[in-house]
Amino acid sequence: MTYEIEYAYTSHVGKIRANNEDNFWCCGESLPAQNFGTSGIFSGSAPQKSLPVLAVFDGMGGESCGEIAAETAAREFGRFYGENREKLKKFPEEFLEDVCDSMNWEVVRYGEENRAGSMGTTAALVAFSRDGVYVGNLGDSRVYYSEENKFQQVSVDHVIGRNFLGKPPLTQYLGIMEEGLILEPCITKLPYVGGSRYLLCSDGMTDMLSDGEIADILMREISLEETVSVLLERVLEKGGRDNVTIILCEIKETEKGFWSRWKKRSRQDKLEGTQHEEQNE
Fold first, then answer.
1. Average pLDDT of the chain, as a whole number
2. Taking CA atoms, which of 2, 14, 45, 189 is between 20 and 30 Å from 165?
3. 215-224: Cβ within 8 A, 24+ apart
4. What local confidence, expressed as pLDDT, does residue 163 receive?
């Protein structure tokens, strides 16, 4: 069985913030550091054999440090992916660990060289390898999985409890440079399931919508683009207090259709060959 990965994505500044500190990497597409989000909802597809990868980043820091951290991570993610596709193919878990280390180093290096002070970014990652789908994350940007009537959060929120006024501090993120802190992305492997969906998003969405609301929208029988549109509209209706970035993908089975067409063509060829032999006789 082979698969096609269809996807749709958007990034929106929200209704309160003046700039967008989110970024993403979706099959080669990302945003510059200074941006106001995408100009709409975009979609596409990639064969599973091409090993597509998806990522969402939510930058943190004063001044313009947040958007620079997120853009630095997105750019390094794309570079590392382009140079290490063989590692993703053979050792996908190691690929995710190493790309997180590489992104972390680039964010730290930029901060030190430019005296940018404290800066960092979350990361929510999905990588489609030969033997399964690998999900990784740092921070509180999330990855959800849905399949028929099943809906669950796959990522782990790296936060210090929830008994804080406001946002609880993150325990894991890209930009960690303090001694004694180890970068430990949460990595989970899931099997390929035709029709299943993966949703990557920044907390600009999850702070506004409950898991129940997200599940309800995700389970509707509408296209990926429509689903992303409804999610974004609902966030903005509720105030859109933060930047929001959404990537939604679906696994489509393709091998069955190919073999069905191949067998049909073979039967036609055999029939035509038999008729030709009878005419010659």
1. 91
2. 14
3. 215/146, 215/151, 218/144, 218/146, 218/151, 218/248, 219/146, 219/149, 219/151, 223/8, 224/6, 224/7, 224/8, 224/43, 224/197, 224/248, 224/249, 224/250
4. 58
Identify each DSSP E strand in 28-94 by its residue range. Answer: 42-47, 53-61
Residue identified by tokens 């995710």 is 96
- Fold type of domain 3-255: Phosphatase 2c; domain 1 (3.60.40)
pTM (two decimals) = 0.89
Q: 255: pLDDT confidence band, cut at 50, 70 and 90?
A: low
Model pLDDT, residue 229? 99
Q: Rounded distance, CA 178 to CA 6, Å?
A: 39
Q: How many CB atoms lie within 10 A of CB 33?
A: 19
DSSP 184-208: --EEEEE---TT-EEEEE-HHHHTT
With b for 16 or more beta-carbon neighbours within 10 A and e for fewer, the 71-86 pattern comes to bbbbbbbbebbeebee
Element holding 144 (H helix, E strand): strand 142-147
Cβ atoms of 123 and 185 closer than 8 Å: yes
Q: Are 57 and 23 in contact (CB under 8 A)?
A: yes
- Cα separation, 230 vs 218, in Å, equals 9
